[in-house]
Amino acid sequence: MSEPKPLSLHVPEPAVRPGGSPDFSNVKIPRAGAVPRPDVDVDPEAIRELAFSIIRVLNRNGEAVGPWAGLLSDEELIEGMRHMMTLRTFDARMLIAQRQGKTSFYMQHLGEEAISCAFRKALAPGDMNFPTYRQAGLLIAGGYSMVDMMCQVYSNSRDPVKGRQLPVMYSSKEHGFFTISGNLATQFVQAVGWAMASAICNDTKIAAAWIGDGSTAESDFHAALVFASTYKAPVVLNIVNNQWAISTFQGIARGGSGTFAARGLGFGIPSLRVDGNDYLAVHAVAKWAIERARRNLGPTLIEYVTYRAGAHSTSDDPSAYRPKTESDAWPLGDPIIRLKNHLTVKGVWSEERHKQAEAEILDTVITAQKEAESYGTLHAGGKPSARDMFEGVYAEMPPHLRRQRQQAGV
Amino acid sequence: MARMTMIEAIRDAMDVMMARDEKVVVFGEDVGYFGGVFRCTAGLQQKYGKTRCFDTPINESGIVGTAIGMATYGLRPCVEIQFADYMYPAYDQIVSEAARLRYRSNGEFTCPLVIRMPTGGGIFGGQTHSQSPEALFTHVAGLKTVVPSNPYDAKGLLIAAIEDPDPVIFLEPKRLYNGPFDGHHDRPVTPWSKHELADVPSGHFVLPLGKASIVRAGSAVTVLTYGTMVYVAQAAAAETGIDAEIIDLRTLIPLDLDTIAASVRKTGRCVVVHEATLTSGFGAELATLVQETCFFHLEAPITRVTGWDTPYPHAQEWDYFPGPARVGRALVETVEA
Ligand SMILES: Cc1ncc(C[n+]2csc(CCOP(=O)(O)OP(=O)(O)O)c2C)c(N)n1
Ligand SMILES: [Mg+2]
């Protein structure tokens, strides 16, 4: 026996750091239309390779091709376009508002708009999302009031959650949007429980769980997979892989697993990867998974491959940990430009219409913003009362809290 | 001696210890290449390499669990939980494992581990960036809990924590990172560069755990406090003109009961101040200890000024935060009682 060699610790590193030139040669991108579309009742074992490929519909010429194409009408696509543009404009306005000190904090979706906007259109009324802070498209595409969203961001007198939550931590049961927690991954497993409840009650509602690539490392993610797998819960398990957590690249969370989608395979959960910047592909895959859940065929895991083009939040400066030009080099492009090209190729959209839509949307968002600001911003104008702070801790305020409220004199 | 912010002092403590002892390893979320979201570990990976200071997956249970494994192997991990509000997934590892290894193995396995985490509010961070969970640690047998309030203490106490043979929870009041915040949120905070407690000895220097510091000597009432509230209490004393003796506890477990008792026996009055919620907070423990050790010297009921028993709100941050006005009122009432 020879002497064993000394061990050494492996610590993953991204391909490039600030100063280097961006490199996505490791992201293997199949041709649009190349990935088959199995029946929803397929044996999960038969589609293992879908966890390693990328389902794409829009090709480089802006055409919708392959078995996942053809589900949406022109009107629906134009509506989707408007939703994404609205979300992007909403984000831009709120980022400026944050910089102006009208609120404390903001998180944007830049580059990821297709995912939540398209997914929302595949759901039915009564379904419930358990979102993270980067799925506001579920609200925009679901017709939730932008004024209400902004009032939440401003923590003002009309804030639906009374100033109790950090900006963007929306809540709307009516719009199928579960109250957002700031604690990562906790809600991924709650979605599974909500879906199990629907099954226990013999209802027809399904749940959608949401998580970021970085947060899949949390134990709650794995708990969700085992419960979903064991009880075949009617839930869609969504992983938004935007390549970065805060400063850590996706390799830190993914480790030796080929892809995030592949995490589902060990649990026997059908697991698909999809081009997250392709509105049509996101919608088609979401629809497939939602149908599986609705037909009591159990959970589906979806990994959306996308890129976080902006900073993690207004507290973050990505130039400290990744090349500034990395987002330009991202090979899956921009979801709005890609849908724009597609609609233009189809002859139902043009540069002119796009400009016009941009102007209209900006106008609508600014109108909403003016109204929201008339109800106050974080440090000026109307705000939730100190009394509101004591409400809602319990259904009925216990004596000790009542005493404290009196002490506070509110 | 160098003038440092609290962030720099904390970093310096880790730097000194990593240089002295190759068994010291530092890791956590965003801690490696980037150097931590509050920059406390900036430069350590570049200096000591990727296997001494590294980024982890986002899994707090994993961070503490692996740190325990390393500590039992013989390393001295000093890990970061990005915000104290995110320590709950690690709580089982902390309570059931780190805290009890020594006891249950009769000393065969021990856990020299430091878990650093930013605590407290005042930054409009809402309920997930503002909590003060110290009582959840002080309630656990086998843990030590430290809360520094200035750069000097932060460095000396962190080095003591890293050298300690048992697990230490090191809570960093994030509102103090860049300057001594006194609760007057509408006034600018004087940066540490203008403060003498920012003069930090260079190299290895230890402040023993379990020694409180009297930050203001006085005769009218004893104020027991720690962290950010040390400055709020000082502002309250100055503004009310009450001759308070303010004690910065610095470490909650082990607690410097001698200093506390000597002061209360002298003043005959006691106000306990912390930012954490009231019920079952560490203030309850302090009030009981004072009652047990100083009952016959007390001339007024012991009063607590704390955060309200609600989650930490966003918009109503300053209604929640026990600022100088509330502390001042308690001082006046206690002195007049
Ligand atoms: C339990 C917990 N740990 C840490 C954090 C701090 N944190 C907030 S977002 C984030 C990164 C999440 O990355 P990812 O899951 O990829 O989502 P993305 O922001 O990219 O959408 C971290 C570490 C937290 N909010 N909760
Ligand atoms: Mg991410």
What would your notes on this structure say?
The complex is a heterodimer of chains A (410) and B (337). With 410 residues, chain A is α/β, with parallel strands linked by helices. Chain A has helices spanning 74-99, 113-121, 137-140, 146-154, 186-200, 219-231, 250-254, 279-294, 326-329, 335-345, 351-374, 386-390, 399-408; strands at residues 128-130, 207-212, 235-241, 271-275, 300-305. Chain A has a five-stranded parallel β-sheet, sandwiched between helices. In chain A, helix 6 (219-231) links the parallel strand 2 and strand 3. In chain A, helix 1 (74-99) crosses helix 2 (113-121), helix 1 (74-99) runs antiparallel to helix 10 and helix 5 (186-200) packs parallel to helix 6. The longest helix of chain A has 26 residues, at 74-99. In chain B, helix 1 packs parallel to helix 7 (151-163) and helix 9 (257-267) packs across helix 10 (282-294). Helix content of chain B is 35%, strand content 18%. In chain B, the strands form three sheets. Chain B has a seven-stranded mixed β-sheet, sandwiched between helices. A five-stranded mixed β-sheet of chain B has the order 9-11-10-13-14, with helices on both faces. A two-stranded antiparallel sheet of chain B has the order 1-8. With 337 residues, chain B is α/β, with parallel strands linked by helices. In chain B, helix 7 links the parallel strand 6 and strand 7 (168-173). The A-B interface holds A 8-9, 11, 13, 17, 104-105, 155-156, 159, 162-167, 169, 181-185, 214-215, 217-220, 245-248, 252-253, 255, 315, 320-321, 378, 383-386, 388-390, 393, 400-401, 404, 408, 410 and B 29-30, 32-34, 37, 50-51, 54-59, 61-62, 85-86, 88-89, 124-129, 278-279, 308-311, 313-316, 319-320. The complex binds thiamine diphosphate (TPP) and magnesium ion (MG). Thiamine diphosphate sits between chains A (134, 182-184, 212-215, 240, 242, 244-246, 308, 312) and B (29, 58, 82, 86, 89).
